[in-house]
Amino acid sequence: MEEVNQSAVSEFIILGLCSSWELQAFLLVIFSSLYLIIILGNIFIMLLIIVDFHLHSPMYFLLAYLSFIDFCLSSVTTLKMITDFLKENKIISFEGCMCQIFFGHFFGGGEMVLLVSMAYDCHVAICKPLHYSSIMNGKMCIGLVMTSRIVGFAHSISQLAMIIKLPFCRLRELDSFFYDIPLVIKLACTDTSILEMWINADSGVLATICFIVLLISYSYILFTICLHSKDGASKALSTCAAHITAVVLFFGPCIFIYLWPLSITWVDKFLAVFYAVITPLLNPAIYTLRNKEIKNAIKRL
Q1: pLDDT (tens digit, 9 = 90+) per residue, 81-124?
Q2: Structure letter (DSSP) for residue 91
């Protein structure tokens, strides 16, 4: 039985987004273009913030790290999907599958905490402007980034520890385009109902807690602006719209996948594409199009 298990988990087969070669060729062009835009957009933001000394502030430091995480998160999932479009047999080793799961949750969990950190920076800037420079100093910025890394690492390790020792001896086919725990765990040849509940609770609770904290933070920020400003409503929307949009786009699919698992293939694939491709694609546009300082930096460049 041990030999059977070892041979069964040596590799997994992934079915991808579709089975038609014509459609796969079309999707190859589409997703290759989107991935190129993601890479160039996020690298451009990072370089712009590095070279323009006007953007050397805590807000843009966190924004540059967000671009770095989006760059890495998209590369973990989207790049493998693009290369799989060129293959007839979409196979990955067990170790490769575990690595993709680890880094997907590492960068995903880190981005959740980073978005909370950006909300805290926004809160201090708007609600405590006189104390902003003393609170959001260099040590605080580095501490927030390190916290996002530590939480992301702890989250990914805890998820991986739950599944790495499972006996995989069933059909090895995954009907998706990237490897995530809710899909892989279904291939185990043991009862995983309790484990699924723990895994969904781990990811779902982290996403929900961060989402609730963000909603409370931005609600308080909007209330503060409306209270102390003549045209508070318009300024509040202008200040927080980018952050709120990014938060909804990122956390919506996560909460859906883990707290409300529908087990409908096309819905799962749509949410996975949205999470892995659309969000990293939109983040650079969301944070730059409404930002005057970024626009001015682009003109100077």
Answers
A1: 888 777 777 777 778 888 888 898 899 889 889 989 988 988 88
A2: E
Cβ-based burial of 293 (10 A; exposed 0-12, middle 13-18, buried ≥19): middle
Between vectors from CA 63 to CA 124 and to CA 204, what angle results, nearest 5°?
85
- State the CATH architecture for 2-300: Up-down Bundle (1.20)
**Cβ pair 124, 131 in contact under 8 A:** yes
Distance of CA 199 to the CA centre of its chain: 17
- Give the pair of three-digit tokens for residue 91: 């196979």
Residue owning tokens 């273009």: 33
Q: How far is CA 17 from the centre of its chain?
A: 20
| Strand ordering across the sheet containing 11-14 | 91-93, 11-14, 173-174
CA dihedral 13, 15, 17, 19 (to 10 degrees): 140
Please give the structure tokens belonging to residue 282. Answer: 């939109």
How far apart (Å, rounded) are the C-alpha atoms in residues 271 and 256? 8
Q: Please, are residues 55 and 26 in contact by the beta-carbon 8 Å criterion?
A: no
Residues 286 and 246: beta-carbon distance below 8 Å: yes
Per domain, the residue ranges of the chain are: 2-300
User: Is the Cα torsion angle 66, 71, 72, 76 positive or negative in sign?
Assistant: positive
CA torsion sign for 17, 22, 26, 31 is positive
Q: How many residues does the chain have?
A: 301
pTM: 0.83
The two structure tokens encoding residue 48: 């712009």
